[in-house]
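We treat protein structure as text, and this decision shapes the records that our systems exchange. Because each token names a local backbone shape, the row as a whole describes the fold. An entry from our holdings is shown next, in its original layout:
>
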Amino acid sequence: MKRFPKLLLLAMLATATSTTLSSCEDNNDNAPTTQEPSGPTDNAGRVILLGDITANRTLRANEKYLLQGFVRVKDGVTLTIEPGTKIFGDAATKGALVVERGGMLMAQGTQTNPIVFTSAKAPGSRSFGDWGGVVLVGRAPINQSLNTEMEGGIGTGFGGTNATDNSGVLKYVRIEFAGVPLSTKDNSEINGLTLYGVGSGTTLDYIQVSYSGDDSYEWFGGTVNAKHLVAHRGWDDDFDTDYGYTGKIQYALSLRDPQYADQSGSNGFESDNFNPGTPATGDNAGLPLTAPVFSNVSIFVTAGAPPVGTQSGSGAYQSAMHLRRNTSTSVFNSVFVGHPEGLRLDGTSTWANVQANTMQMAGVTLANNNTPLRAAGNTSSGAFTDADVQTWFNGTGKNNAVVTQANLGTLGLNANNFNLTAPNFLLSSSSPLLTGAVFTGKAADGFFDKVTYRGAFNGSDNWLQGWTNFDPQNTDY
């Protein structure tokens, strides 16, 4: 065999290697590229989002972003956010993302790569209300004037006549440490996720709001539906519905920290038509009535004594469900544990909706409450009593139940159900909540999956897996 001299062989190999590498570089579409930031950056290298977004824009997962002040997506403009993107809210300017009527937010993460809106503060120093929150504004029906001012000075005018209006997609999205008061006026806050007149063309699915400084979710009118919502360690109410909201929600969870509640009295559900609720005389004048339908909701405060006051918050817990001011909210197949009150039906107009069967409740378990069922807000005309509420709640075929603290163990909740940073909500195999769901009346609607179980979870399907975070305080983003 003819042998090449060693130096010649090395030279030939080097030439061949160089040629091969050159060929790969010319044709490798995945080769690393240097990309300039898509805008001005702060001292942490985050691209600053400021003012109005007036042309279609995409936020990329390989960048981080900082919301300064109100960042508004204008009418006719689409803001797209890639899976895995991190958006931080600035505390000093109370940064918030506001998608105005006619704007679109396409925030579609994945189970393994969710989109995260969070505090700009360092791990360990984050808190309730570090920034504003996410606000969607649509053209669906509301029961107030279409020129009504939005809370917190966000702007004037929301809602319309398009029940199927589309404000975009929020799917596999987390919103953390938002919900901030914007002035000293009452009702002048942004919530974790605020929805003004948002239509049913909008997709809301797999969303977690954690450590909101006000409500975790609030709907002001509109028709948007939702599935798989999580409210974690909020300050005020978990799910607040007002101004004629008529959408449907299935699979919703709240896990509360018993040490934190609001001065107004924190509730799982708070529902109003408006204040004072009547008269309701026509479209945009009290009608449509607030009439959402919830199914498969689990709201947990504590397995211990219900907290009548809080050590670290500004107020106390009140009701698992505070339904008032002519609301017509309906609730099915849901479990509420640990509020001082279970169901508070408030006001004779609300009681009239019960009597008219426009408010429906079945498959509901109220557990570990000091006062499970209460009548409130009576007037001399149409007065009703605690006993009246009990008779209605316990009606034949409804499968509603009241469970005392002493009997809480009979529900078969998970041993880690109330673990604030590493919870597990899957039911034990012997839990009576695995069966007994009721899908009659308003719950017969095709939107609802006709599952057998009550509450947000069965014994095997953990829909929280992969995308939620129950310890965002210590997450390094």
About this structure: The first helix runs from residue 6 to 27. The radius of gyration is 26 Å. The chain has two domains: 49-235, 274-462. The longest strand covers residues 64-73.
